[in-house]
Specification:
- The protein has 254 residues and is an alpha+beta fold.
- The chain folds into 2 domains: 106 residues, no CATH class; 112 residues, no CATH class.
- 22% of the residues lie in helices and 34% in strands.
- The chain is built from 6 helices and 12 strands.
- A hairpin with a 2-residue loop joins β2 and β3.
- α1 packs antiparallel against α4.
- The chain starts with 27 loop residues before the first strand and ends in a 7-residue tail after the last strand.
- InterPro entries: DUF3738.
- It comes from Terriglobus roseus (strain DSM 18391 / NRRL B-41598 / KBS 63).
- This is Soil-associated protein, TIGR03435 family.
Length: 254
C-alpha cells in the first residue's frame, strides 16, 4: 500500500457529479509494462496527477477505491496481482489549479474513471458480512492533545507528515480520519466511536511486527494506543463494503 495520500481518504463511492466540468478525466495516461524488475515501486497522487512504478493493477485499484483490506476486494484475475506495470496519468497545464483543489475522494474518482477507460474495469461495492475494529476511549480517559490550529480550507481534514512502519505523526486530524488510517495499519476497516469531535495532534509509536497480537520488546499497536493515547480497539462483527470486480482486461500499452 502507499501512504502518500492519507490526508482524508475514505472509500470512494462518489458519482460523476462530484467532479468539476473542466476536469472529468485525466487527459493524458501512459501505461507500460514494468521492465526494470528491481523491486523498486511507488504509487501516489502528485501535483500533476497520479504516478505509479513497478506496481500491480491490484495496487492501483486499492488506491482508487481505498480497499487495502484483502477481504474487501474480490473478483480480480491472477495477473492483476502479479504483473507489474508503470502508469503516468497527468492533467493539462491549464487544469493544474483545478486539480490542486480537488479532495482526495475526487482524485480517487478520477483514477477510478481511468481504470474503467484503460483497463475496462467494472466494479461495485456490495455489503457482506465481515469484521471491523471500533476505536473507543480506554478506561482512565483519553490522552490526546487538541490541535491549536484554526480550521480552514487547507487543513480542515488534517495532515499526515509522517506515516511509516511503527510510527504515526498527525497534526490537526479528526478522530474519524485517524481511525480510518489505523485501518491501513491493521488491514481491517476501523471506525471511530470515541465521541470526540475536536481535531488533534497525534504521535503514536509501536513495534511494527506486532500489528496483531504477539510478543516482542516493543509495544503492539493495541498497547501503544492505550498507553500513549488513552484509546483502545475492539473487534466487532459488521456488514462491510466489499469491492467486487466483474470485468477487467489488460490495457494496450502506449
Amino acid at each position: 500500500m502507499f501512504f502518500s495520500c492519507l490526508l482524508s481518504q475514505c472509500v470512494a463511492q462518489s458519482t460523476e457529479g462530484t467532479l468539476p466540468n473542466e476536469l472529468r478525466d485525466f487527459p493524458v495516461s501512459i501505461v507500460k509494462p514494468n521492465v526494470r524488475n528491481d523491486g523498486r515501486w511507488r504509487a501516489q497522487f502528485v501535483a500533476t496527477g497520479y504516478t505509479a512504478m513497478g506496481v500491480t493493477l491490484k495496487q492501483i485499484i486499492q488506491d482508487a477505491y481505498f480497499v487495502y483490506d484483502e477481504s474487501r476486494l474480490e473478483g480480480l484475475p491472477k495477473w492483476a496481482s502479479t504483473e507489474k506495470l508503470d502508469l503516468d496519468a497527468r492533467v493539462d497545464t491549464e487544469q493544474l489549479a483545478t486539480f490542486e483543489k480537488l479532495s482526495t475522494e475526487q482524485k480517487q474518482l478520477l483514477l477510478q474513471r481511468l481504470l474503467h477507460q484503460r483497463f475496462g474495469l467494472q466494479a461495485g461495492f456490495e455489503k457482506k458480512a465481515g469484521r471491523q475494529y471500533v476505536l473507543t476511549i480506554a478506561k482512565g480517559g483519553a490522552k490526546l492533545k487538541r490541535s491549536a490550529q484554526a480550521v480552514n480550507e487547507s487543513n480542515e481534514k488534517g495532515l499526515w507528515p509522517s506515516l511509516r512502519p511503527g510510527k504515526m505523526v498527525a497534526s490537526h486530524v479528526p478522530m474519524g480520519e485517524f481511525a480510518r488510517s489505523l485501518g491501513l495499519v491493521l488491514g481491517r476497516p476501523t471506525i471511530d466511536r470515541t465521541g470526540l469531535n475536536d481535531h488533534f495532534d497525534i504521535a503514536l509509536e509501536w513495534q511494527p511486527d506486532l500489528d496483531s497480537a504477539g510478543e516482542t520488546s516493543g509495544p503492539s499497536v493495541f498497547s501503544a494506543l492505550k498507553d500513549q493515547l488513552g484509546l483502545e480497539l475492539r473487534l466487532d462483527k459488521a456488514a462491510t463494503d466489499v469491492l467486487v470486480v466483474t470485468a477487467v482486461e489488460h490495457p494496450q500499452s502506449n
